[in-house]
Amino acid sequence: QVQLVESGGGLVQPGGSLRLSCAASVSSFSSYIMGWYRQVPGKQRELVATIASSGSTNDADSVKGRFTMTRDNAKNTVYLQMNSLKPEDTAVYYCNARRFGYVFWGQGTQVTVSS
Question: Residue 33 forms beta bridges with which residues?
């Protein structure tokens, strides 16, 4: 069983920055494809970014150039650095781990961008 614990969410003004963390309790963490997703009430959960075991990333068009996903395999942790935040980035952000067809989710962390 994989446990994912997100942290780092909060309230930030437009144009500000936040860094989300997701700590995974799992062996062979480096073999997992990790992802960040977000969801607004009443809408489908959407992809923000993913990172492969190689470190290569895939970002949603809406966050390209503003968000950066990284991983630290020694700490079993992934990060999402969010810069130039906009009100439309307000959502619950979820961490995701995938391997061999199995998918695991964290409990989510709220990010609110508002003045």
Answer: 98
What residue type is 69 in one-letter code? Answer: M
Separation CA 30–CA 12 (nearest Å): 31
The answer to whether the beta carbons of residues 7 and 63 sit under 8 Å apart is no
Alpha-carbon span 61 to 55, nearest angstrom? 19
Identify whether the C-beta of residue 24 lies closer than 8 Å to the C-beta of residue 30.
Answer: no
pLDDT in tens, the chain (115 residues): 889 999 999 999 999 999 999 999 998 999 999 999 999 999 999 999 999 999 999 999 999 999 999 999 999 999 999 999 999 999 999 999 999 999 999 999 999 999 9
For the record, the structure tokens of 76 come out as 């079993």
Query: What DSSP string describes 28-91?
Result: TGGGSEEEEEEE-TTS--EEEEEE-TTS-EEE-TTTTTTEEEEEETTTTEEEEEE-S--GGG-E
